[in-house]
């Protein structure tokens, strides 16, 4: 069985489309350094008059991607064109803005596990080219470094799931024309259960922040990740009411909550209860519920979209 090699596409350039030197190809070397080990950071405070120190919670540093390899062409002019194509694919724009082009590029990766992944990164050091052999003007080595502020690597495939509102129920039910007979010593056990629990699966190894959209009608909705115990409860300062056709969009990555009614969007983040927390979809299966203050009307719909995430 042949081994899979990592392949990377940035713009119009694909690195490792061919796994061995040949005509018109970029061949990656030291591929383990591209998605290498992350560093962490923390703050230390020396203990007054004591050994050691008090430290803070640790956090990951931004991801640094190191690309090394060779490019091979059929002619010197074609090799120059390949250099220019790579420079163009990773270069910063002349005019940048946070609202427009901020220099970040979509980096598409087919990893060694065969899964298509992606991240956004910007150039930290432009490609440097070196001669491999004086007798080979059509070939060069290349090396460049990219920077990703978000350390997570996401699946290219977007997971989108829609589910109706949850409800409370019990394990005890009656069926028409089939009423149960109760006998001493054989009484049924009745337990509370929840209906319409949305199950979502993060196939990665790292938490992924979801985008949640609620469709009205609903009053004071409460969304909870039963797996983590974290919830988003819109019950404070008068709560939130959605009529039919109105939506509530919750971006757990940006930590925003926007109500849209009649085409106008308004922040309702101030409506979140004090014990609310924006949550991630953790690796594995997560159980998500939606309850509100109108249990007699369970027509509200919840849409969740996220990408499996790796670190």
Question: How does this structure look, described?
Answer:
The protein has 311 residues and is mostly beta strands. Helix content is 5%, strand content 43%. The strands form seven sheets. Strands 1, 2, 3, 8, 9, 10, 11, 12 and 27 form a nine-stranded antiparallel beta sheet that branches. A hairpin with a 4-residue loop joins β19 (222-225) and β20 (230-233). The longest helix has 15 residues, at 76-90. The model has no long low-confidence stretch (mean pLDDT 89).
By DSSP (H or I, 4+ residues per run), the number of helices equals 1
Terminal Cα span? 27 Å
Helix content range: under 10%
Shape call: elongated
SSE order, as H and E?
EEEEEEEEHEEEEEEEEEEEEEEEEEEE
pLDDT average, as an integer?
89
Tell me about the largest β-sheet.
9 strands, antiparallel
Beta content comes to 35-45%
Tally of DSSP β-strands: 27
Which runs of at least 5 residues are low in confidence (pLDDT < 50)? none
Global structural class: mainly beta
What is the CA-based Rg, rounded?
Answer: 27 Å
Secondary structure layout plus pairing:
Blueprint: E1 7-10, E2 13-15, E3 25-29, E4 40-41, E5 44-46, E6 53-55, E7 59-60, E8 63-72, H1 76-90, E9 105-110, E10 116-131, E11 139-148, E12 153-155, E13 159-164, E14 167-170, E15 192-195, E16 198-202, E17 211-215, E18 218-219, E19 222-225, E20 230-233, E21 241-242, E22 247-251, E23 256-261, E24 264-267, E25 284-291, E26 301-306, E27 309-310
Antiparallel strand pairs: 1-2, 1-9, 3-8, 4-7, 5-6, 8-11, 9-10, 10-11, 10-12, 12-27, 13-26, 14-15, 16-25, 17-22, 17-26, 18-21, 19-20, 19-25, 22-23, 23-24
């Amino acid at each position: 069985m042949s081994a899979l090699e990592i392949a990377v596409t940035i713009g119009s350039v694909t690195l490792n489309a061919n796994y061995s030197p040949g005509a018109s190809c970029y061949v990656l070397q030291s591929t383990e350094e591209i998605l290498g080990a992350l560093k962490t950071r923390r703050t230390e405070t020396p203990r007054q008059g004591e050994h050691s120190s008090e430290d803070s919670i640790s956090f990951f540093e931004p991801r640094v991607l190191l690309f090394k390899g060779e490019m091979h062409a059929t002619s010197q002019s074609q090799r120059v064109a390949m250099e220019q194509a790579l420079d163009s694919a990773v270069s910063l724009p002349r005019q940048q803005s946070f609202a427009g082009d901020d220099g970040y590029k979509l980096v598409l990766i087919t990893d060694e596990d065969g899964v298509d992944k992606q991240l956004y990164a910007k150039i930290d050091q432009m490609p440097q080219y070196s001669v491999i052999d004086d007798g080979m003007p059509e070939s060069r080595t290349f090396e460049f470094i990219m920077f990703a502020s978000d350390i997570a690597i996401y699946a290219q495939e977007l997971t989108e799931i829609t589910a109706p509102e949850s409800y409370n129920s019990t394990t005890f039910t009656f069926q028409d024309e089939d009423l149960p007979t109760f006998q001493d010593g054989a009484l049924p056990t009745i337990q509370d259960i929840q209906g319409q629990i949305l199950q979502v699966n993060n196939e990665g190894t790292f938490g992924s922040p979801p985008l949640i959209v609620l469709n009205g009608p609903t009053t004071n909705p409460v969304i909870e990740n039963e797996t983590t115990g974290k919830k988003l409860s819109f019950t404070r300062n008068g709560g939130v009411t959605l009529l039919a056709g109105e939506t509530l969009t919750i971006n757990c990555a940006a930590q925003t909550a926007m109500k849209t009614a009649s085409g106008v969007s308004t922040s309702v983040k101030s409506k979140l209860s004090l014990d609310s927390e924006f949550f991630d979809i953790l690796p594995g299966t997560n159980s998500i519920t939606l309850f509100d203050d109108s249990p007699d009307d369970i027509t509200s719909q919840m849409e969740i979209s996220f990408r499996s995430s790796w670190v």
